[in-house]
Specification:
This protein has 537 residues and is mainly alpha-helical. Helix content is 51%, strand content 5%. The protein is built from 18 helices and six strands. The chain has a four-stranded mixed sheet. Strand 4 and strand 5 form a beta hairpin. Helix 12 crosses helix 13, helix 14 packs across helix 16 and helix 14 runs parallel beside helix 18. The termini are far apart. The N terminus and C terminus are likely disordered. The structure holds protoporphyrin IX containing FE.
Length: 537
Amino acid sequence: YSPDTLLNKRFASNSRALLKSATSESLRICATGQETFPGDLIPPGARAEVVAKETRIKSLKEMPGPSAVSNLIEFFYRDGFSRIHEIQMEHSQKYGKIFKSRFGPQLVVSIAGRDLVAEVLRTEGVAPQRGNMESWKEYRDLRGRSTGLISAEGEDWLKMRSILRQLIMRPKDVAQFSDDVNAVVEDLVKRVDTLRSQQSDGLTVLNINDLFFKYAMEAILYEDRLGCLENEIPQKSQDYIAALHLMFSSFKMTMYAGAIPKWLRTVIPRPWEEFCSSWDGLFSFSQIHVDKRLGEIQDLVSRGETVKGGLLTHMLVTREMNLEEIYANMTEMLLAGVDTTSFTLSWACYLLARHPEVQQEIYEEVTRTLGHGTIPTADDVPRLPLIRGLVKETLRMFPVLPGNGRVTQDDLVVGGYFIPKGTQLALCHYSTSMDEENFPGADDFRPDRWIRKDATDRVDNFGSIPFGYGIRSCIGRRIAELEMHLALTQLVQRLIPVVFLIQRLIPVVFVSSSPPAGPEVNTGCVCLFFSSSWSRG
Ligand code: HEM
């Protein structure tokens, strides 16, 4: 720079102060400039000191955080992976909006402030990396499988992402799936009726989460119904559910095992074996459905008929990805899309059950807009701001992934600390979404806080980003939203009036008033780096 202008003189002075105080191994800033600041009322030496206090870049060594031993006890002895949300709150209150922790050999910098999270995500490059996916990649190499969108990195990821994003990232792209989703919603409502009729009160559905899990499994990805909402679930779908459950629990185990050197697997082989066998189950299930659809497409083509369909059909017809990549992506998308959607639906129902007044408001909005008989489609959703607010507020209070990860791809300065390239960051979404500064009355369930009164009134979305942000954000967001909006709208529209007539005294809708009891899904740290079994049930 040229030290001619007033601005540059200030910068020169700042840079010198920064350089003086930063640790030599971590900072690569080079500055030259005038020592003095002509005309400044503060004597040069004193000024440098003031600036140094305000803007000194600190090293990671100076960053506060729990000791390695206390962290070890917290996570490995006290099962901290299941209480990530609590630990985030405790640590951010104790150490501030940026702090460091150690997981065995892995150093993690946690970022628990909305503006700091925004700073990190806004500067990310073209192919952000979420975290260490070594165990996922190892399994794929072992079995000769491909990586999918979650486990891929760099060029491979960019290629797949650019293909898939054209198909499912925009609301209008997924709107065409409304009828398929509504067919599943219809079965869901019928199943709710059946289950309620089996209870003595004729109202309660026990284990609503199990029901939503099956609803989400029936989603549109395979363009085929799996039979999960039938009275008798087909054996293959039961096997898949079991494989998903095993996958979640064994992945948690490999997180523990991840901190242990690989050679120890010979001494404690079980977690790794379970991890591999659950992936085997997931891949083989996906493969059956993908192959089935491929066979149908080939039949249509051989008869000279037009091939129509959704995401899977598009992938199979265009062949922009090879078959192994299609298997991998279908597997990873189903894995990422089932329990995320189902647990969010469960929490939404739980919150409605605990807040009958909100339930009533939403019921009125739905019936005012659609009446009692109109089946909602994606086009109706913008006219249902409280349904959208319900989903946003549920995800704010119970973000299914309470934290997310990024590996820095460049040296960064965040919150006054120098963070070298290659550092694992943990973005603490739960603590930002429960921060009073971002959401006044953060403990209160208020879907209407998301309704904009005018163009300037906007809830800052970096406080709550349940689907992540930017180029590596959730690719299934629009699908998930469609599934949740349509299911909740119809449940409210078709079930609540009955319950309201019969049971206004107790805050029970179609769930019991206790927190939703999940199926045996104890996910721990799942695919997306930081997940909590709390948020997944
Ligand atoms: C309530 C429902 C869901 C929530 C809260 C959710 C949340 C997330 C989050 C936080 C991420 C990480 C984003 C980031 O790193 O910035 C993610 C990634 C991902 N999600 Fe979702 N998700 C949901 C549903 C779905 C569904 C239904 C699908 C599939 C159809 C899906 C597929 C994926 C995939 C493939 C990724 C990895 C994207 C990539 O690395 O490029 N998700 N999701």
